[in-house]
Amino acid sequence: MEALYFNVSDGYLEGIVRGYKSAILNTTHYLNLTQCETLDDLKLQLSATDYGNFLANEPSPIAASTIHEKATQKLVDEFKYVRNNAMAPLSQFLDYLTYAYMIDNVILLITGTLHERDTNELLERCHPLGVFDTMPALCVATNVTELYETVMVETPLAPYFQKISVNDIDELNIEIIRNTLYKAYLEDFYDYCKRIGGVTGELMSEILEFEADRRTINITINSFDTELSRDDRAKLFPNLGKLYPEGHMKLARADCLDHVKAVVEVWVEYRPFFDTTLNSFGGAATSEAKTLDDRFFEYEVHLNKLTFQQQFHYAIFYAFLKLKEQEIRNILWIAEYFPNKFGIIFFTGLLIYIIMSNIYSQLPKYVTNSSEAKKERQPPVSETTKKFVPDFVTGTLEETVKDSAKVYASKLKDKVLLLDNPLKTSNEKKKRKHSKKKVRSMSAKEKRETKIYEIPNECHRYELFIPLNELWLQYIDELYGTSSPAVFAQKLLKADFHGAILTGNSVNSCILITQISNPILIIPVSRSRCASYIGVTGINIHETENVFKLITKDNVLKVIPKGHSVFTFLLRDHMFTLYGDQFRFRSAARAAKKFKNKPTIDL
Residues annotated as region Disordered (predicted)? Predict the structure, then answer.
């Protein structure tokens, strides 16, 4: 009977979503995408999938951000089609899915208002799924108080704002407000799914409990070494999940990552997250170690895939949305892999500099006396070689020269001779003169096969890159010069960061460390989405559009993303802040780009 009544109102939409899910990219598609050499090739491969000609109107050369924007818009169109044809209670369930994006958008508007940004401009940066009908009314607000009152009346998030007063809204508490809203949202959504009951309540309870536990773990780790007290930390934990309530009480008292690991390992489902012997969820071997954030994503995908093994429930609508978002992230990661020509030239020059620096560091220092310096620079020669060369030359010249020893001493000894190939015939010379050798550049596939961008594992040694860091310190000091902080801020946007020492304070949150003139004051970063990069420090050896690649003191290569990052450092008693989301450009693009001097926000 349940199946019969379900199909009457929701069976058609369930079939639509299952059809959407069957079009999700599989292993073969990803293999074809990774074999692409340019973004245009990637565009062509995507056109052969369910994405179709969604990039047909985009001119070449196409950017990775454009691919991400168009893929997201396609997902939004599919979701809106399902929502417009849904009836209660499915329509209310789908509305709950958009509340998470609404929270991010409202927080974005509040942060922009605190920084006196134009709210109409911020609307363009909001996620499409989090846009509601009364959202333009928020643009009328000119300060935080008016915006708060508008949110309380005009938005579906009003019940979640009841525990937040307008006096609590400031730049320091913005992340606490975000987590408070998410806590209220998860608890409300969890209760709604329980009221629906059946298979929907069973599957959604497991998914939302994991989401709550993930946020609890992240809040705990990210609150280390901050002013957030243990009681305030506990108030941010959602009142649901496998960790609730016993795990919450223990995590509220945790003060290091080892304590968190000891608490979480009690639950079998979460034990692999902190097991360093496993490279992925389930223990499958991979080419590189997984971060805590990666393992969270893998387990989330695993739970979402299980929902499609049962029928007549609403959980597949939630699972499809999350799986499609993960697919878009995968496409964006592949698109960002393609480097520009400037990166090839600079990275090759960087490797040459490092190699030559280490060679020169092993050579003896020059002495002041020229004759001694000449002997000092000469490579060591064995006694056998010293005796063989004169004897061989004089023995060869005895047949044609009377005084061969004198000829050797006057014309050959201590002289440098250029040994060339025997003369070719005139015809061969003409062929070589008129032949024009075509210069062919390496394809992207050849570059991947030859691993031109990869530093060999034996060269993953921190001490090899210390000269590069010292050179960068001199460079940034000369760049600052006698200019004012405002002028230097513009120079910093176009500066080269190869050789800088970067520290990951938390995943997707980094700190730039320099050592010029004055000691550096490290400023903690309040916002993050995962904590697997906490304390990661190393020399930046490669910068791409979206990541920094670091060599740590443990001789390990780490990749730190720029997205959702805030880079803050103190230089000559002046504080400088770089917002990672607006800093996602390649070095060559940054050097030629004109940045506008206007207020910004942490995105």
Answer: 426-445
Which residue do the tokens 């030859």 mark? 450
* Non-local CB neighbours of 156 within 8 Å, separated by 6+ positions: 95, 99, 102, 132
463 backbone dihedrals φ, ψ, rounded to 5°: -65, -20
Q: Kindly write down the DSSP assignment for every residue of 485-534, as one continuous string.
A: HHHHHHHHHT---TT-EEEEEEBTEEEEE--SSSPPPPPPP---SB-TTT
**What global pTM score does this model have?**
0.58
pLDDT reported for residue 320 = 95
Written as six digits, the tokens of 515 are: 């050592």
CA distance 262 to 283: 20
- Point out which residues pair with 567 in neighbouring strands: 578
Structure token digits, residue 593:
């780009």
- Amino acid 147 reads L
SS3 of 252-317: the string is: HHCCCHHHHHHHHCCCHHHHHHHCCCCCCHHHCCCCCCCCHHHHHHHHHHHHHHHHHHCCCCCHHH
Q: What is the DSSP letter of 243?
A: T
**482 Rama sector, left if φ>0, alpha if ψ -120 to 50, beta otherwise:** alpha
Alpha-carbon span 298 to 304, nearest angstrom: 10
Determine the Cα–Cα distance for residues 288 and 290; give it in Å rounded to an integer.
7
Backbone angles phi, psi at 391, to 5 degrees: -65, -40
Tokens of 120: 């109409």
H or E element at residue 567: strand 566-571
d(CA 470, CA 502): 14
Residue 115, SS3?
A: coil
With b meaning 16 or more CB within 10 Å and e meaning fewer, what string describes 489-513? beebbbbbbbbbbbbbbbbbbbbbe
Q: What is the mean pLDDT of residues 418-443?
A: 58
How many C-beta atoms surround the C-beta of residue 463 within 10 A?
10
Tokens of 523: 């400023």
Q: How confident is the model at residue 524 (pLDDT cuts 50, 70, 90)?
A: very low
Measured distance CA(164)–CA(158) in Å, rounded: 10
| Residue 502 and residue 566 in contact, taking contact as beta carbons nearer than 8 Å | no
What is the crossing angle of helices 39-47 and 27-34, to 10°? Answer: 150
pLDDT at 491 > cutoff 90: no
Give per-residue pLDDT as tens, 102-134: 988 888 887 887 777 777 777 888 889 988 777
In percent, the amount of the chain with pLDDT more than 70 equals 68
Cα 311 to Cα 334: distance, rounded to the nearest angstrom: 34
Q: Give the Cβ contact number of residue 347 at 10 Å.
A: 20
Provide φ and ψ at 602, rounded to 5°. Answer: -85, 110
Per-residue confidence band for 341, with pLDDT thresholds at 50, 70 and 90: very low
- How is residue 579 written in tokens? 């917002």
- Say how far apart CA 236 and CA 538 lie, in whole Å: 32
Edge-to-edge, what's the strand order for the sheet holding 547-552?
Answer: 509-513, 501-506, 536-543, 547-552, 557-561
**Closest-CA residue to 74 (of 313, 327, 302):** 327
Long-range Cβ contacts of 138-147 (<8 Å, 24+ apart)? 138/106, 138/109, 141/113, 143/113, 144/110, 144/113, 144/114, 144/169, 147/109, 147/110, 147/113
Per-residue CA distances from 592 to 46, 62, 347, 585, 587 (Å): 31, 18, 18, 11, 9
